[in-house]
Design a protein that fits this description.
The protein has 295 residues and is an alpha+beta fold. It has a single domain, classed as Extracellular Endonuclease, Chain A. 26% of the residues lie in helices and 20% in strands. The protein has nine helices and 13 strands. A seven-stranded antiparallel sheet has the order 2-3-4-7-10-11-12. Strands 1-13 form a two-stranded antiparallel ribbon. The protein is globular, with a radius of gyration of 18 Å. The two termini are 32 Å apart. The N terminus is likely disordered.
Length: 295
């Protein structure tokens, strides 16, 4: 079993300490006058749940300075002020989190934690370049909590995705397979990191002067906390006929090159190399399990 030997509390402090200074400052500015954390503030307590892997790290200072770090009860993310996408979103899924009666209200809303940089729902209504408001942390991952389901509709959790054949199909199928692995596939504690791969995309959407970059592709990195196994996926932002999710498995090291991010940063360099250089395999589950995970 591959595990970090640092304690959760120490890692939470290290995670916050190594976050980009600009991201910490931008988030800290949202704190209330009384000094209590504002909604979305990246406090050590909020980030502690991700200590087994640590937060993804940007490899370039120029990119790191463009980030706003946001942490909520359901997920944390690093919002890019230049592209107006979340460069990564991290969650920790358990069967308990995936069960409940919470419903989608589809109330997309500007994120006060990102201030003036947050997209608005109207930014995605560009007739020249139609895109879905694609959740990076899916609403169906928070069925146990209506509040956390609602939080998933902040626009900082969205990225411009092709709708037919992708956001409403192939990408959703991957999200359902991840939930199935957690619910009844024998992987009850999984950390999921999701985000865009900008690639060579030159497509910017939006009706206003401040546009949103539509990425070329998307990634997911899964880490099983109990077994220490990991696997990565890359899907192009395009229409797909229905395809098995394991078709899209790639080495995590390739995703690091494509995104400029360092994943699994809390693990030793040796353990990272073991997990990231091999292609890996997806974790199986039966069809009944897959049906239970549909949103």
């Amino acid at each position: 079993m591959i595990r970090s030997f640092l304690g959760a509390a120490a890692l939470a402090g290290a995670v916050l300490a190594t976050a980009p200074a600009a991201a910490q400052t931008s988030s800290a500015q949202t704190a209330s006058a009384q000094g209590s954390p504002a909604p979305g503030a990246p406090t050590p307590a909020c980030l502690a749940r991700f200590s087994p892997v640590g937060l993804p790290r940007h490899r370039g200072d120029d990119v790191a300075l463009k980030q706003i770090l946001i942490c909520r009860d359901g997920y944390a993310l690093s919002f890019n002020k230049a592209t107006r996408n979340p460069d990564w979103v991290i969650e920790r899924l358990t069967p308990a989190a995936l069960k409940g009666a919470a419903k989608r209200a589809d109330k997309f809303q500007k994120d006060p934690a990102a201030g003036e940089f947050s997209p608005t729902p109207q930014d995605y209504t560009d007739p020249a370049n139609p895109r879905d408001r694609g959740h990076q942390a899916p609403a169906a991952d928070f069925k146990f909590s209506q509040a956390q389901t609602n939080d998933s509709f902040y626009m900082t959790n969205m990225s411009p995705q092709i709708g037919p054949g992708f956001n409403r199909a192939q990408w959703r199928f991957l999200e359902e397979d991840v939930r199935a692995a957690v619910l009844c596939g024998g992987h009850p504690d999984v950390i999921v990191i999701t985000g865009p791969i900008y690639g060579g995309s030159a497509t910017w959407i939006g009706r206003n002067a401040t546009k949103i970059l539509s990425p070329a592709a998307y990634f997911k990195v899964l880490y099983d906390v109990q077994s220490g196994r990991a696997v990565g996926f890359r899907l192009e932002n395009k229409y797909y006929d229905k395809t098995p999710s394991d078709t899209f498995i790639v080495p995590i090291s390739q995703l690091e090159v494509a995104t400029g991010l360092d994943f699994l940063s809390a693990l030793s360099r040796r353990d990272q190399n073991v997990l990231e250089r091999s292609k890996g395999t997806f974790w199986g589950h039966g069809q009944d399990c897959a049906n239970a995970a549909k949103d």
